[in-house]
């Protein structure tokens, strides 16, 4: 099997989608008979960086870097004219436009993306149904069962949509750093209790909760890693002395902050999933598991697929500062329980390496390539009514808010149910 991976944004990139796609491709490529990466290039240095990152030959998409809309359009439009497109057995992409162009020009497609597009842009639902139901659209890979269910609600056959979750790099955690040594490395006083967040520091991640919790617990140092400059969270934290804002850190330095955590925080908020829709089962969940540090998160349906209260994490009700503070107190006040949760998380992490993800995807794509097309989907009156109703809701949201992405209505939390799907 030969795969042409296509990515529509320039590399290297600090964005999570780039990390997921390029790392998956890098682990998948050795399992194939041939692999290439189709990507827009700035210059020769950009080509070298992309090849080193992906670990395979790079094909120039011949698209301008700016504006972004034109870049995406040309990445799809020029793809069918590349020699590697004709040589590949399957096109592997995260871009719907690219997937559609590949289908139109006779190729098979594997689509790997985390967003629940049927909920977020409802007018696309019928087109998505038709695209995914095409015989040459062999599989839609979701990072969460939450997203998978949104596609199945369109009437798409279950065999077409699979959940294979993200992973982490074990090499990042081979040299474990003792807690107090990690604190010393980042300039934290011995014995100082710490709550650490890593990721993008912005208003879309629910970090206002962390700043408010810091006001309630002035004896605990809250370290928020991943700032790109002055923003709402940085301004909010300016007068809170026990909140430390840290700029974006490369992977080798990030480990110091992770290991310096008495508690690793995923802000317990509906905002990333249900209001902004930009985060579904965040990537940090997986390397948090592998760190061997206690995790505190919210009872939201995406996170609840992997983190389970009082098993491998402490989960609290979303968007409640008192409940967040109570969770911090519970973990800091019971070191034995915190250690137990961390040990279980570490054991669970062994199922979530990038290598394991690539092997699952390879087996799935090979199986889908070798079987006859599945039965057609079902788009009936129920799906049509839901499409019409949700599209009206989306249009009203666009007019009133000026936002193209419709926030999905929150689902019930998964609580302590274990949903190990994929």
The CATH homologous superfamily of the largest domain corresponds to: Glycogen Phosphorylase B
Question: How many domain regions?
Answer: 2
Oligomer: single chain
How is the CATH topology of the largest domain named?
Rossmann fold
Domain Glycosyl transferase family: 181-345
Domain Glycosyltransferase subfamily 4-like N-terminal: 63-172
GO molecular function: hexosyltransferase activity
Protein name: Glycosyl transferase
Structure characteristics:
6-stranded parallel β-sheet, disordered C terminus, 422 residues, 18 helices, globular, 7-stranded parallel β-sheet, alpha/beta, 13 strands, Rossmann fold
Q: Could you explain how this protein is built, in words?
A:
The protein has 422 residues and is α/β, with parallel strands linked by helices. It folds into 2 domains: 182 residues, Rossmann fold; 177 residues, Rossmann fold. 43% of the residues lie in helices and 14% in strands. It has a 7-stranded parallel sheet, sandwiched between helices. It starts with a strand and ends in a 21-residue tail after the last helix. The C terminus is likely disordered. Keywords: Transferase. This is Glycosyl transferase. GO terms for molecular function: hexosyltransferase activity.
């Amino acid at each position: 099997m030969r795969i042409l991976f296509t990515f529509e944004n320039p590399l290297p990139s600090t964005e999570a989608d780039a990390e997921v796609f390029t790392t998956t491709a890098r682990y998948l490529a050795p399992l194939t008979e041939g692999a290439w990466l189709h990507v827009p290039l700035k210059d020769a240095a950009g080509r070298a960086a992309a090849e080193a990152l992906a670990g395979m030959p790079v094909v120039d998409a011949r698209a301008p870097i700016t504006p972004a809309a034109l870049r995406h359009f040309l990445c799809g439009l020029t793809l069918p004219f590349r020699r590697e497109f004709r040589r590949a057995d399957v096109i592997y992409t995260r871009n719907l436009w690219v997937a559609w162009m590949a289908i139109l020009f006779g190729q098979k497609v594997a689509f790997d993306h985390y967003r629940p597009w049927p909920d977020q842009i409802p007018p696309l639902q019928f087109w998505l149904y038709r695209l995914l139901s095409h015989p040459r659209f062999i599989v839609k890979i979701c990072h969460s069962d939450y997203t998978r269910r949104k596609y199945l609600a369109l009437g798409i056959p279950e065999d077409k949509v699979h959940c294979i979750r993200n992973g982490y790099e074990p090499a990042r955690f081979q040299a474990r750093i003792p807690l107090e040594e990690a604190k010393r490395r980042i300039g934290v006083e011995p014995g100082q209790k710490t709550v650490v967040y890593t990721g993008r520091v912005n208003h879309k991640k629910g970090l206002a909760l962390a700043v408010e919790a810091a006001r309630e617990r002035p004896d605990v140092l809250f370290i928020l890693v991943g700032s790109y400059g002055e923003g709402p969270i940085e301004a909010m934290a300016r007068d809170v002395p026990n909140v430390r804002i840290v700029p974006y850190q490369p992977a080798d330095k990030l480990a110091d902050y992770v290991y310096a955590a008495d508690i690793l925080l995923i802000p317990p908020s509906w905002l990333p999933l249900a209001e902004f829709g930009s985060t579904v089962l965040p990537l940090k969940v997986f390397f948090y598991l592998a760190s061997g540090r206690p995790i505190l998160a919210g009872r939201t349906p995406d996170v609840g697929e992997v983190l389970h209260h009082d098993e491998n994490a402490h989960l609290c009700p979303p968007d409640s500062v008192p409940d967040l503070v109570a969770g911090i107190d519970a973990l800091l006040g019971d070191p034995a329980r915190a250690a137990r949760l961390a040990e279980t998380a570490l054991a669970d992490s062994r199922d979530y390496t990038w290598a394991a993800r690539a092997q699952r995807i390879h087996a799935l794509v090979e199986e889908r390539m070798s079987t006859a097309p599945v039965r057609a989907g079902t788009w009936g009156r129920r799906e049509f009514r839901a499409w019409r109703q949700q599209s009206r809701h989306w249009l009203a949201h666009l007019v009133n808010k000026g936002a193209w992405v419709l926030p999905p209505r929150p689902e019930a939390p998964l609580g302590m149910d274990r949903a190990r799907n994929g």
